[in-house]
Design a protein that fits this description.
Elements (H helix, E strand, L loop, with lengths): L38 E5 L4 E3 L2 H4 L1 E3 L7 E5 L2 E5 L11 E5 L4 E3 L10 E5 L7 E9 L10 E5 L6 H4 L4 E4 L5 E7 L2 E8 L16 E3 L4 E3 L7 E5 L8 E5 L5 E6 L6 E6 L5 E6 L3 E7 L7 E7 H6 L9 E5 L4 H6 L33 E4 L5 E4 L4 E4 L4 E5 L2 E3 L3 E5 L2 E8 L7 E6 L4 E3 L9 E7 L5 E9 L6 E8 L2 E9 L4 E10 L1 E9 L21 E9 L4 E7 H11 L3
């Protein structure tokens, strides 16, 4: 007999989304008392696989030796070590996490736990909590929450916890079948090791300030805030491959980094700090030679009364050619690639000429100066070579101001007229950079000044703030910082007005700046310091020609997060 049909398994049908279930009649009874076995068998109603069992399956309280976990047909078998001695009158929980999944679709068994007691009853106390990112307020998934009997700081590094749980997709965690007692609560983002031990600054951590007393009638969520521990100051990377610039990246903001140089006479430097790096612009006009840069964190030195003399790290800057750098050096806008240098030869170019670059147009608010960002530090400018045009008319009344925060930025202030488009033309020689080189190209930029009816106003009322406390308020458009204001609260309520805002959906971030340094500071588990509190709120959409009134109460935000379970 011959067959022309293709043989195979039938296809189609709805996708299996049901997690594997337990065949209780064929399994070791769950919630058993006076348990004295060394083997647990859990049989499922379908074929299953074990995934990452060594890290997902955890026993609370911890065993002296990890159990052996194997798969036998549809049955997951857990074998305790022959020498394992279970504590008397103790309730144990075997947490399987997401280790057990169905064979075909990978659906994990939901909330799979095996509970037993070596005594006459099962402990029944419980509590719930929520974990959020300390800065963003967003819930954090799959983080280990631990309860310790040992309150020493070294316990989180060297010991496994007495009880253990993990957060779900909305940052919630739950402990069940607990005994009454007093515990230390710590959360660890367990990284790649997943050994339920804290690996220092490489893993985020959260902790409760006070001990947790587990007892009857526990109410409310235990909220934890996850943060990256205050790291020891160190250099993450460096780039000094081009003449004129040394870029250093650090693991902390570089505001407290100081530098010194060991170089021939004539070296000139200019320091620029960004949120995550320090840029040292330099010029060595007299000779091409290597030189040495030294850097240190003076904030650490100021805290160290025993050794006030700073310890500098050193970087050797290799010899680079100044003349080669200047040969191809061209000033341009920082957000536009500069045109290629003109060829000095007489050979004819092959192919069509390059297309002229389009002039970039930016939106401009009439009440603010226009920013001009360049690719190199600007040391001088000649306004006689600046052409400002509106409606084909040249403007002569304007001012140009350097930006104290960035040597590569200038601001242009003038009497902007709403609804008009302004053209700024920087003729050759209008700018002189840090190396004394003028711009060789004509630089063009347009600014479209928005009309009042295209803009909106935000009236923001801050409530339940702490008088005498410093705050940093940030108005965000997506991830872009639109405006930042620093203030010290004089009362529990403060009103702020933001005028001439572009139409958008804004959010507000309020940082409780306890040390008054104008930025958010993370926590430090070693000194038991919590991260500075941050409150985030997404506002309603700001409409054109409209005033949006918003109330920002820190207590209301915290209460809302608790109700939603998202932190």
């Amino acid at each position: 007999m011959a067959s022309c049909a293709r043989q195979g398994a039938p296809a189609g049908g709805p996708k299996d989304t049901k997690p594997p279930g337990i065949d209780t009649l064929a399994s070791t009874p769950n919630f058993s008392t006076r348990f004295d076995k060394k083997r647990i068998e859990i049989k499922f109603d379908e074929w299953v696989v074990l995934s990452d069992a060594a890290t997902q399956i955890v026993v609370s309280p911890p065993l002296a030796k990890p159990p052996e976990v194997m798969l036998k047909g549809k049955t997951v078998v857990v074998n305790f070590d022959k020498t394992e001695v279970l504590h008397p009158n103790t309730t144990y929980t075997v947490n399987f996490g997401t280790a057990v999944k169905d064979l075909h679709e990978g659906n994990p068994a939901k909330d799979l736990r095996f509970v037993f007691s070596t005594g006459d009853f099962i402990d029944s106390l419980s509590f719930t909590g929520v974990l959020v990112d300390a800065f963003t307020g967003d819930p954090v998934e799959n983080v280990s929450i631990m309860l310790y009997e040992n309150f020493a700081d070294s316990a989180v590094r060297k010991e496994q916890p007495y009880y253990f749980s993990r957060t779900n997709k909305v940052g919630q965690y739950e402990f069940k079948n607990l005994r009454a007692g007093t515990f230390r609560v710590v959360a660890i983002e367990d990284g790649d090791l997943k050994n339920l031990k804290w690996d220092g600054e490489n893993e985020r951590i959260a902790f409760r300030d006070s001990a947790l007393v587990v007892e009857d009638l526990m109410r409310g969520l235990i909220q934890l805030k996850l943060f990256k521990n205050q790291p020891k100051f160190r250099l993450l990377g460096q780039n000094a491959n081009r003449y004129g610039l040394v870029k250093l990246g650090f693991n902390t903001p570089p505001q407290t980094v100081e530098t010194q140089t060991i170089a021939p006479e004539g070296l000139i430097t200019l320091t620029e700090r960004t949120p995550d790096s320090l840029m040292l612009w330099y010029d060595l006009p007299n000779v091409d030679t290597a030189w040495t840069l030294l850097f240190s964190n003076f904030a650490l030195r100021n805290r160290d009364s025993v050794a006030p003399i700073p310890r500098f790290d050193t970087i050797v800057i290799k010899k680079l050619s100044r003349s080669e750098f200047l040969k191809n050096h061209r000033i341009g806008f920082g957000d536009v690639a500069p045109p290629p240098p003109a060829s000095g030869g007489k050979a004819k170019s092959i192919g069509p000429p390059p297309k002229p670059q389009a002039v970039k147009t930016l939106f401009q608010v009439a009440s603010k100066p226009a920013p001009l960002q360049f690719n190199f530090p600007i040391s001088a400018f000649d306004t006689s070579r600046w052409l400002l045009m509106v409606d084909s008319n040249r403007l002569t009344t304007f001012s140009v101001m350097p930006d104290s925060a960035s040597p590569r930025r200038l601001s242009v202030a003038l009497d902007w007229k709403q609804g008009k488009t302004y053209a700024i033309m920087l003729l050759p020689g209008a700018l002189t950079d840090f190396w004394g080189t003028p711009n060789a190209d004509t630089l063009l930029r347009n600014f479209n000044v928005l009309a009042e009816k295209q803009l909106g106003t935000l009236s923001l009322s801050l409530e339940k703030i702490r008088p005498g406390t410093s705050y940093v308020l940030q108005l965000l458009n997506g991830t872009t910082l639109e405006e930042e204001r620093l203030f010290t609260a004089e009362a529990v309520i403060k009103k702020l007005i933001f005028k001439h805002l572009q139409v958008a959906v804004y959010s507000v971030r309020l940082i409780e700046d306890l040390n008054g340094n104008g930025r958010w500071d993370t926590g430090d588990f070693n000194t038991h310091r919590q991260p500075e509190r941050v409150f985030n709120k997404k506002l309603d959409a700001l409409r054109a020609n409209w005033e949006l009134e918003a109330t920002f109460s820190t207590e209301a935000i915290n209460e809302k997060k608790k109700k939603q379970g998202g932190g």
